[in-house]
Amino acid sequence: xxxxxxxxxxxxxxxxxxxxxxxxxxxxxxxxxxxxxxxxxxxxxxxxxxxxxxxxxxxxxxxxxxxxxxxxxxxxxxxxxxxxxxxxxxxxxxxxxxxxxxxxxxxxxxxxxxxxxxxxxxxxxxxxxxxxxxxxxxxxxxxxxxxxxxxxxxxxxxxxxxxxxxxxxxxxxxxxxxxxxxxxxxxxxxxxxxxxxxxxxxxxxxxxxxxxxxxxxxxxxxxxxxxxxxxxxxxxxxxxxxxxxxxxxxxxxxxxxxxxxxxxxxxxxxxxxxxxxxxxxxxxxxxxxxxxxxxxxxxxxxxxxxxxxxxxxxxxxxxxxxxxxxxxxxxxxxxxxxxxxxxxxxxxxxxxxxxxxxxxxxxxxxxxxxxxxxxxxxxxxxxxxxxxxx
Length: 390
Ligand SMILES: *Cc1c(COP(=O)(O)O)cnc(C)c1O
Prior knowledge:
Blueprint: H1 15-25, H2 35-47, E1 51-55, H3 58-68, E2 76-79, H4 86-93, E3 97-100, H5 112-125, E4 131-133, H6 144-154, E5 157-161, E6 169-170, E7 173-174, E8 183-187, E9 200-204, H7 207-217, E10 221-222, E11 239-240, H8 251-261, H9 264-282, E12 287-288, E13 296-297, E14 303-307, H10 316-325, H11 341-344, H12 354-362, E15 363-366, H13 374-389
Parallel strand pairs: 2-3, 2-4, 4-5, 5-8
Antiparallel strand pairs: 1-9, 6-7, 6-13, 8-9, 10-11, 12-14, 14-15
Helix pairs in contact: 1-8, 2-8, 3-4, 3-7, 5-6, 9-13, 10-13
């Protein structure tokens, strides 16, 4: 038994990353300097999207994208219950109401059939959503062509929550290229695929949307002559055109992010290797490995298993505690958002999204990060075997 703690996720920082940040510290700009456009180009370029807008964190990108798409009071945003709270909170920041579409029991992604059924019902009731946020949970893409087709039919906008998915693909299209959406939101929190400390980015192919999101990033303020309402009073002049925020990223963060982007390919490949190794090593145990949609390649932010609770004599909690006691930093992603007390206050209750709740009762997230070794995977397997047997 190893004494060291194996976390579920961990950043991978090398000397080039450190040098990139130091270079910014010695430069003229700590924020709003040249590292921001460099990072924006790196991410948008990788994804194959026309525009990238870097922001303070992923949550800010979801908020601004929803607002820039016109979401406001009286509107609805739909997302998946199996996500980080940010995907849903973004709608509430805009004053909109939030609702959920239950997940597919296999992939744990927003289920297109359930989405369609809910849209048919909502059309009758006059409660169609303005924005839908499909979450590429664990790194695997939702069925975007189908969700996009439903968006065309029912008139909603789409923001992909791609916080887990940088480096992944669907039907040969890189996640984040917005082939089937209005915008995609990325996060650079240290546990995510690449990190900038804190940070986020919107990718989009819609120039006007990109402009509006960039406006919201800095208080709704512009200095562009063609956009201002009045004649300029002089070189100091700017105008606030709408109520925005201070959601800027610093150049320190952008330099780190841009440097990390040079290793995205290697990170993604190592994550795929670890996932394949887990699949092989866990075969035959009383659990389900993540279901893979053969149309895509996952970004593999998370590797989550589902315990076969009928076959084992333990609860999920007992298995989880045993693994933690062994120094395995297991986690659970996610507590369904509608079960959060703050969402229950809005009228959501247990039983409303049964597939999400069933998944939650069985799920454990195993460690997954690029610097994990094959021996680490074996250590997780052995600990899991002991925990399941006892
Ligand atoms: C991390 C995450 C976010 C938000 O990212 P932050 O950068 O932490 O604000 C949004 N959605 C999902 C699914 C995430 O995992």
